[in-house]
Amino acid sequence: MQQRFTYLGRKIRLILFTLTLSTTLHAQPQLDFNSIVSGLSFPVDVVNAGDGSNRLFIAQHNGIIRIYNGTVLLPQSFIDLSGVTTENGEQGLLSIAFHPQYTTNRQFFVLYTASGTGNVTLARYTTSTGDPNVADAGSGVILLSLPKPAGRTNHNGGKLNFGNDGYLYLGTGDGGGAGDPDFLSQNGLSYMGKLLRINVTNVNTPPYYTIPVDNPFVADAMVLDEVFAKGLRNPWRWSFDRVTHDLWIADVGQSAWEEVNFVAANATAGLNYGWRCYEGTHDFNTTSGCLPINNYTLPIFEYPHNSTTGGFSITGGYVYRGPDYPALTGYYICADYISGNVWKIKPDGNGGWNATIQTGLPGSITGFGEAENGALYAVSSTGTLYKVQVSASLPVTLTNFTGRLRDGIVTLTWKTSFEQDNKSFEVEYSNDGTNFQKIGTVAATGSPNGSSYNYLHTVAINGTAWYRLKMIEQSGTWTYSNIITIQVTDASANTVYPTVINNGVLSIKLDGSFQSVTLVGSDGRVLLQRDIRARTGRVDLVLPVNAKGICMVQLQGTGQTPVIQKVIIQ
């Protein structure tokens, strides 16, 4: 089953002071996770080397890295690091990243928790000169060895990525313990709970890295030079968009919320994501050392701790940029390790974000990764490598959704270029941009060549009107269109609203020219009649309990043309 939730990170909505808005929209692509390889041992990361070989390198929690060559899983290990790391709970091999100049320097980097100390360790290795499928286990050098608070083995972070700037980025957890008890994420002199950024190119002497001169805190004595951002809890999986270079950080939550943070490529560096003061957009522990929430960078999406609409441990993914599924292009894909729910997130065109949940896909996803061409893969702790695909049929492609106002009536029109298994369109209306109600249903034609549709809505109140379409498939699965807005400036003087009543109250906007209002049922019985002489403005009428289904509202007055409006009473 699929549902969509719209989250506006800063509650910002764009009000359009024009009468028509046209947009190009597409139904949500449905994902499949196609099993490619099974029998792995708790894989946690999958990456490509960028060397033209199209191989996928799969990091296992036990310290062993395997290679999938596009056809088979090679029998030998690329490298075995089980001697330097211990697989225990959240401890083990965490990530692998290949240097942008790998084809010439043969360097790759691994992140693991060190055996014995538990230190979060960044090390560099090289591939052997004689066999590109085997690394030189004796070539390792350590760049960073970050001690953890005594006795704490969890919250190690775990993802390495090279940015478009050529620098290596590393996400670290808050060091462990419930609620960041040592406040390390906000402590600039701790490496814990941070995004680090270092230069590892052409540095062949200890510590085998240098500090980029434009790192945001190099002039701040109270923050380590390696720090690029702070205030993270446990950024287990995060990524860069390979086209826009925007940063996406999925941060694992504590007790109630999982979150996704977005930072545009041209945004200011040195951001603070707010942990432990805030968990997502919610207060967590603001007793000391915390600023008001508007001083922090808030997530663009969050979901609650439950198995139905949320989960308990987010696994961040990537923005899809592969060649196979154009309908998926631009969607950020992430999953919850516990609930198995998967989300597709994309800008909604109005300054906010649309996040679509999809259930029924394989669970226990520990990581996502890209092939050289941008194809998306995922790994599961059950030992499986999946290719993330789009199912063969999309229910509907919506190419245009427009609203036009005239004489207090909004005419909504929309067009599709393709339909398959699409049952109907439900039209939803809101007068505040947040709370929507169904105002009508239009049956779908199901034409593979698409169709044109329209719907009329009488608007009673001047101001902004929000509309969206709920596109329902034969299976009951549904998805929303983007939201369009109409600025209403000439609402009808005498109006009956809403046209779909679900709260037992009929409202009428009057100018004083009518004498009576009558509600007639579909069988012709008079269900309600009221004297409204000299009444002006809004009049609310509580409906009798037997008023159900399709009814007609009649406004009558001496010398006046009657106003007749059909309503649906639920």
In short:
The chain has 570 residues and is mostly beta strands. Helix content is 1%, strand content 44%. The strands form eleven sheets. Strands 1-24-23-22-21 form a five-stranded antiparallel sheet, with no helix packed on it.
State the total count of DSSP E strands. 43
**Percent of residues in helices:** under 10%
Distance between the termini: 25 Å
Strands in their spatial order, largest beta sheet: 1-24-23-22-21
In terms of DSSP E residues, the strand content is 35-45%
Question: Mean pLDDT across all residues, rounded?
Answer: 89
Features:
disordered N terminus; five-stranded antiparallel β-sheet; 570 residues; mainly beta; 1% helix; elongated
Give a verbal description of the structure.
The protein contains one helix and 43 strands. The chain has 570 residues and is mostly beta strands. A five-stranded antiparallel β-sheet has the order 1-24-23-22-21, with no helix packed on it. Strands 30, 31, 33, 34 and 35 form a five-stranded antiparallel β-sheet that branches. A hairpin with a 4-residue loop joins strand 33 and strand 34. The chain starts with a strand and ends with a strand. The N terminus is likely disordered.
